[in-house]
Amino acid sequence: MKKEIAIGIDIGGTNTEYGFVDNKGKFYFKKNIRTDETDDVESYLDILCAKLKQTIIDINGGYEIKGIGVGAPNGNFFTGKIEFAPNLKWKGVIPLVKLIEERMQIPTVLTNDANAAAYGEMIYGAAKGMKDFIVITLGTGLGSGIVVNGQMVYGHDGFAGELGHTVVYPDGRQCGCGKKGCLETYASATGIVRTMLEMLDNRQEESVLRNIEKTKLTSKDIFLAAKEGDKLALEAFDITGRYLGIKLADAVAFSSPEAIILFGGLARAGEYIFNPAKKYMEEFLLPIFKNKVALLPSGLDKDNAAVLGAAAMVWKHIVK
Amino acid sequence: MKKEIAIGIDIGGTNTEYGFVDNKGKFYFKKNIRTDETDDVESYLDILCAKLKQTIIDINGGYEIKGIGVGAPNGNFFTGKIEFAPNLKWKGVIPLVKLIEERMQIPTVLTNDANAAAYGEMIYGAAKGMKDFIVITLGTGLGSGIVVNGQMVYGHDGFAGELGHTVVYPDGRQCGCGKKGCLETYASATGIVRTMLEMLDNRQEESVLRNIEKTKLTSKDIFLAAKEGDKLALEAFDITGRYLGIKLADAVAFSSPEAIILFGGLARAGEYIFNPAKKYMEEFLLPIFKNKVALLPSGLDKDNAAVLGAAAMVWKHIVK
Q1: How many interchain CB pairs under 8 A, A with B?
Q2: Do B135 and B198 share a domain, yes or no?
Q3: Using an 8 Å Cβ cutoff, are B23 and B4 in contact?
Q4: Alpha carbon separation from B221 to B137, B185, B212, B265 (Å, rounded)
Q5: Within this chain, do residues A269 and A214 fall inside the same structural domain, yes or no?
Q6: Overall domain count for chain A
Q7: Is pLDDT of B213 > 90?
């Protein structure tokens, strides 16, 4: 019997990664192309699909390709379209699934990056065997994929799971979405930088971070300073974890998950973000939920996580 | 063919209502007994089930009883048990489904009151035909039943849907649950009374409500004053609607429902609560959700809503 394979494609603003993955998460192949080299999506897909077809020829029929899963910003599972993605060159509504299926003649599914991460954890990662869990992606922004009773929560329009845009303070920080006080303006890589910059302005204490030019400060700098015991950096993590923890408690009240998985760059700060997030989440949980919800790191290899997530959809929605 | 009938039982702290209902919501029968007349649940169920059996005899086999649905405070759908309900006389964990099935030999399902309300709206009321919606019960507290993809959200332990205990202000009002700042301390019949009492203390304006003894002020008094154009009463509704609207926007970001249904005593204040709740919800929605979520009143006759909700479960979970 031929080995069954899923193709995973992760479309980012700059790069597109793709790979051939089996149902255990084993990679047979991983490559990437530029997303932004061509201005129109048709030319981009001509290049991408030509490469995929060449790879299929190269492997000489050795595998049975079961489907293609795509993770992309603003990817809508219901419509198969990328809808008004702010960080992609292609504007408006892109019928991505249709365009790929026309070229490849292989069943294709699409979702957004945070939901893809949740599929990845469900099939290959930390949520294997769980029916109720939430994945929070802590990168430039804050994304989320919510799984209830074994199913991704899409809502009536495919846009559910926007925990990054729930409100921490009604009159809080300006968010890129146009609203104020959204969680992602506090709990994300950019959020912790904003917190740190405010602290450097308003506080007098010494900090190694005062040596870094303000416009160049990154969340990684704050992490490295925290590791060295820098008091202000540690406090910035505590504040960030508090905002996150309060809203995680809200999320638990909503769907009572078995676990919440923190994924992405800021989550790799480990205990510096997990400890305060856990502490404040527990503080704000209703008694019936206390000490029942695991806060877990991603179970996926970070270099392959996005492609694994995209590929995982094939096993969930195409092969079944 | 015999008419198919569901038995609905709504257990409250003081009264238990029960009725025989068909799949269109037509009542063939409705009665009630005291919940608190006996100290132990066994004697209570002996009385209740004797009455149900007598009714079944009285109707002389004219109907086919398909099942029993029970709505009760802290009723857990997964376990069939009432677990530590603060306003019931029976303490600890009560295996209600088992106790009823032993007496009646009829398949029985249990859920909590807010979820029962959501089943009622799904089968008989304002959410007929919807797959994604949320019911918010605005009574003494704030309960919620969340439906995603046609299924009630129970979470891994059966306790999901506690939007009344999501946080408005981390250091806000003391809640009965032990936490501070829970939504139900602001947006509920008791919440609006707390808001009004604070306003009467802190503000100088005239209000007809100054004529009512403070310990006796009710949400209905505030409603009647608002109808007369009392400025402070109108402002209390605006404040209450704002707290509610902000957290409804959070709920939309979570599960992107087609509609949110406001149910219960405070919801019957109509435009006084709906208008501000809608206004502030829209203000705090992510642009992709704006003007897409209907805010609806209950579609159930208020005098029968609780029994209808309990009976509705039979069509959803037993007959299917």
Answers
A1: 135
A2: yes
A3: yes
A4: 19, 18, 9, 12
A5: yes
A6: 2
A7: yes
pLDDT band at residue B85 under the 50/70/90 scheme: confident
Q: Is the dihedral of CA B174, B177, B180, B185 positive or negative?
A: negative
ipTM: 0.94
How many contiguous H segments (helices) and E segments (strands) does chain B have? 8, 13
Dihedral (CA of A224, A226, A227, A228) sign: positive
Strands A259-263 and A294-297: parallel
Query: Which residues of chain B make contact with A163, given a CB cutoff of 8 A?
Result: 253-254
- Round to whole Å and give the CA distance between B27 and B6: 10
One domain, residues B143 and B287 = yes
Taking an 8 Å cut-off on Cβ atoms, the answer to whether B146 and A284 are in contact is: no
Quick one: residue A93, left, alpha or beta (phi over 0 = left, psi -120 to 50 = alpha)?
A: beta
Domain check: are A243 and A282 in the same one?
yes
Question: For B18-31, how does the pLDDT look when each residue is reduced to its tens digit (9 = 90+)?
Answer: 999 999 999 988 99
- A44 and A72 part of one domain: yes
> Which residues in chain B have Cβ-Cβ distances shorter than 8 Å to A114?
none
CB count in 10 Å sphere of residue B14: 10
Do both A215 and A257 map to the same domain?
A: yes
Indicate which CATH number applies to the domain containing A220. Answer: 3.30.420.40
Average pLDDT over residues A52-67: 88
d(CA B216, CA B22): 41
Question: Measured between alpha carbons, how far is A174 from A97 in angstroms, rounded to an integer?
Answer: 34
Nearest of A25, A73, A29 to residue A299 by alpha carbon: A25
A110's CB contacts (< 8 A; 6+ apart) are: A69, A70, A71, A72, A75, A76, A77, A80, A81, A82, A96, A97
The predicted structure's pLDDT at residue A247: 98
Q: How confident is the model at residue B290 (pLDDT cuts 50, 70, 90)?
A: very high
The answer to whether B167 contacts A254, with C-beta atoms less than 8 Å apart, is no
pLDDT band at A252 (very low <50, low <70, confident <90, very high): very high
Q: How does pLDDT run across B269-278, given as a tens digit for each residue?
A: 999 999 999 9
Same domain, A183 and A257: yes
Is pLDDT above 90 for B152? Answer: yes
Cβ contact, residue pair B286, A177, below 8 Å: yes
Q: Domain span at residue B145?
A: 130-297
Confidence of residue B86 (pLDDT cuts 50, 70, 90): confident
Closest CB to A160: pick one of B159, B165, B254.
B254
CA gap A169, A179 in Å, rounded: 11
Residue with tokens 């997303």: A35
Say whether A154 and B157 touch across the interface (CB within 8 A): no
DSSP state of A319: I
Residue B313 and residue B270 share a domain: no
Edge-first strand listing for the sheet containing B133-138: B151-152, B142-148, B133-138, B259-263, B294-297
